From TrEMBL:
GO terms for cellular component: endoplasmic reticulum membrane. Pfam families: Phosphodiest. The lineage of its organism: Eukaryota, Fungi, Dikarya, Basidiomycota, Ustilaginomycotina. This is ER membrane localized phosphoryltransferase Gpi13p. InterPro entries: Alkaline_phosphatase_core_sf (IPR017850), Phosphodiest/P_Trfase (IPR002591), PIG-O_N (IPR037675), PIGO/GPI13 (IPR039524). GO terms for molecular function: mannose-ethanolamine phosphotransferase activity. It comes from the Eukaryota. It is a multi-pass membrane protein. It comes from Pseudozyma antarctica. Keywords: Endoplasmic reticulum, Glycoprotein, GPI-anchor biosynthesis, Membrane, Transferase, Transmembrane, Transmembrane helix. It is found in: Endoplasmic reticulum membrane. Pathway: Glycolipid biosynthesis; glycosylphosphatidylinositol-anchor biosynthesis.
Amino acid sequence: MPTSALNPAPEVSMATPQHPAFGSSALRQRRSSHSSHSSHSSHSSYAARHPDRVPPKAASPNRAFLAVIGILVLVLLQTFAGLWLFVKGFLLTRHELLGANNCTRPADSAWTLPAPPAAFDDAALLKWAETLDPQTGMGECRLKPTHSKAVVIVIDALRYDFIAPPPPAGSVSDRVEDAWKPNPHYHSVLTLPAQLTAQHGSPVHAKRPGPAGFLAHFAADPPTTTLQRLKGLTAGTLPTFFEAGANFGSAGTGVGRVHEDTWIAQLRASILAQRGADARAGLVFAGDDTWATVLPGLFDNDTMWTYDSFNVEDLDTVDRGVESRLLPFLQPQHADRKAGVHDHWRLLVGHTLGVDHVGHRFGASHEKMATKLGEMQRFVQNVTDAMDDDTLLVVLGDHGMDEHGDHGGDGELEVGAGIWMYAKSGFGYTARGGKMDAAEYISTPELEALLPSRIAFSPLPSPPYGAHRSIQQIDVVPTLALLLGVGVPYSNLGSVVPELFAHPDTLLRALRIMATQMRTYLAAYAAQSPDLAAFRSELDARWLAAVRADAELAAALHGRAAQADVETLWRKAAQAYHAFNRVSLVSARSVWAQFDQVRIGLGLLVLVLGLASAWVLRSGARTGLIGRLDADTADGDVMVERASSGAEELGRVVYAAVRTPALVGAATGAAAATATQLVLAGLANLTLLDGLLAGSAVGSQLGLLLSASGANLRRSIRTRESDSVAVPTTTRVLDAAGWIVLLLHAGSFASNSLLIFEDRFVLLASAVLLLLRGAFAVGAASTQRQQVRLGLMAVVALLLVRAASMPRVCREEQAAHCTSTFFAGTAALNSPYVMVASYAAAFALPRVVAWFLAQSRSYVGVAPMFFTWALRPALMLGAGYWVLDWAVALDAVQASGEAARVEWVKGWVAVLALGLPGVAGVFWVFAPLCLEIRREAAAEGEEKTKVTILGYSNSLGSSYVLLVGAVFAVLFLVTQPAGQLALAAVLVAALAAVELGDAERDRVVLHRQRTETPAGAVHLSAAEIASLALLGYIGLFGTGHQATLASIQWRVAFLTSPTVSYPLSPVLVALNSFGAVSLLPPLLVVLAVVWNATPLPRGSGRKMATPSVMLHALLTLALYNALLLTTSAALAGTLFSRHLMLFKVWTPRFMLAATVALLAQAAAIAAALAGWHTANKVNTIFGTEFA
């Protein structure tokens, strides 16, 4: 705000003694060290002689701000306690059973069903079923292997349409509007799987032993992150949503390790049982180092080569390593083949990463994708050429990718991987009719409704493709186990691929083995958890139906029935066992996360009480809380019951209110947790730490709420009545509007559709608040100049908010109602035009911020130097990094041989762009205030020379905005160019909103002057704080994010290094994902508090209420975030806990709310610390006191 009657620039006359608070620099007098010392002595003598003329030393603001920090820490700890309890109850990992399938019975190719039971009643059938169990009877646990060796090639992010056969020529509509055109970057590039499958036919149609292939859509279970998919591919288990966070685990940490049985463990055990425990198993691995995390110790140590999996900039190293390590095992004439090393292998596993990294780096529709898929074509060709008849080849994707190369969620393109299984010796003869499809043979209409065997896939045309053969990703586990002649993993929930078990008798035996093991696992799981209790009757009925069909087949076989009848019963039994397997899988999926209702309830209780406590603390910051405080009397200091005045006293009242209840609560919680372990089985999982956190949090909250009742409540009512007179009607309306927006934002979480389009709601709500604030500001302005200025501020803020929301990444559910604009086209590339605009914004933004400072004549002192030599270079380096990132991938740069040098320069640019704001932050700590002393010659007839202190009226705000700029520069670097433009728009809009807020507070001051209302602290309205919070969310969405895992921009983890570096890489990803919504709002709120808050000079006899105003504002922001968190937690953990979209919509939004609540509260503490430091500077220079 410009200097005005409310914010005057002080004038100091040269004829009057200079106040020592201004220091010798005020008069710019040049003295020797001696004269300076003499001056100091002279001043001391003067003070001693005239104590009435020299104001006493100003009181330090430390105690007041320390109380602010303490209260904010209390709120953070209570929020953390509530989240700890809720998350442990809601986002549990799936209960792991550590049993293993102890399959010791050898395979018997002549095995047949035992004699049927004498009677076919339920009891007799279940008794007869025990004879089919390999542990209790004579049943099978393995089949004779079709192949003794296997090669498994995992092509990371291999989407189904990357290997699917193209539509036949002339089968696609000729109409232009209907025509489907293949994407030249990934369609018909990796063609070998489709070619060999078409050439040799599927195994179910084989007339004689010979090459056979099977190609299908490979449906992955979300979350589609590599670590979780490898668990499914090896153990056949279902993941939980929360396990996605383990993807940042590393080998040796134990994070993400599979503790359950796997087909690789079964194969290793089978080999070592024959060769001896000390022998080499012949299990070889090369590729993604995630395998070392998931399956440590299963591959032979001397034939396991791992490569860094997170370096998305490196497209070739892992792929080259896989080829060079595996091909010597297959090619007898390979130059690197060594006797004793490359002989006698049983399993080769290779995991390439180039396709995935191209997707992350450039998107799917990029020429480098065609290059990489071509390389995979040659690699697979080399494998097929070299493999012998006794080898089974499996080429598969662990997950797919969307058009931007992202994955992690459950979108069609993310879960749509591809699989190809191939053997030169085929998979045996078939006894089915040539027209009988294998999937159709074992399926029924009911099962097709549950898990269809054929699905549509949008990247491929329909017609001619009505549907594509699809299998569940975990189906590969029992399939590989049985084809290799080993037991099915204990916890497997997948089913066999029927096409690979050609004969109906072999297929039935495979389904029976699988169903028996699955029933064993489900029975053990039911003994550990009640999750499946609701499905027990249905599963029992399905099992009994399968056993009955099997008994009927046994009766037919032993009764020498006609072959046609036997074949009919073969199919009936196969359908029954398949139905049991599939219904079991669907049932388990519906309860894939078990909820601990006790922890969920305790967590919600702490979060709800935390809302009430934060409200009480916020009210205390505004009006004070009644407690026992000292009072000066004639008899000395005594303790009396009175309302706190200022932040320091509020801190003492709060400490007294929560100290004892927190300790008592902690002791009670610990005792309760210990007792429940011994007495109440339902609460047996409540640990001692849970009890301590719950008890101390609830105790402190109840202590605070009880102390705030009674007299405090009555006083609060009276204060609200007086406030209605102390503030104008427009301020009350703005307060109400702010709370209404907050309630609507939280309430929108109850609607699936509104939650999906949260980005549009945030834009609308922000625009409405800014429009309302602008209209009130213009209407209340006292001059035409103010009307024009404030009106322009509001319009500029509205336009910038709209501009900041233009860069957008659409989530899958928004479908046709959204167009992604964050990247250039469909690829994950940044537009050159956007990069040019970002570079221009980086150059201009410091000047725009300087303009806001110039309005209060605060762009003086160190400010010009800071903006010119720190902020602008940091921003331009941040924009330049992404220009280099774009340039290094150009064909011209690659062909010139300068790519490595450009990469090196890019890395150092990122280091400098991070280092410069760090240096600027250190400079800010020790820098003086943004002040300048300006002399003005005396007017004619005057003897005194005037000295004006420029920047005085906004000395708090001008200093603080330098820190905001340094933090903003870091966020600018970690954001891609379109997001950089959005962040720049958000920052300028926020400064305009802060100016509107300053005008709103001026209006309150003028209202009090007109109504002769007693002066008091002027607090930020709820609308102003809500506007800043919503700007944070606009920044979140404008930087290319949504409340989905797929929108995480992993590539920023490699800004400063080509490999993952801890802890910097996760920090960079966190800043990119949450910086705009977690760091900026608290900083902007504190900036709004100190903006144009004119310091009260030494000797004024008054104290500034800045600490209390700051605490009130930050607690209002905390309430905003806490209400969103509590609402999302309550809806996800209770009302929608069994909703179909729980893990797709509500769980990611809860995780976002939880992260934002914690990070924003931590940032609020840091922002308050920075405000404290700024206040100390003002206290030192001007002698301003704070309370």
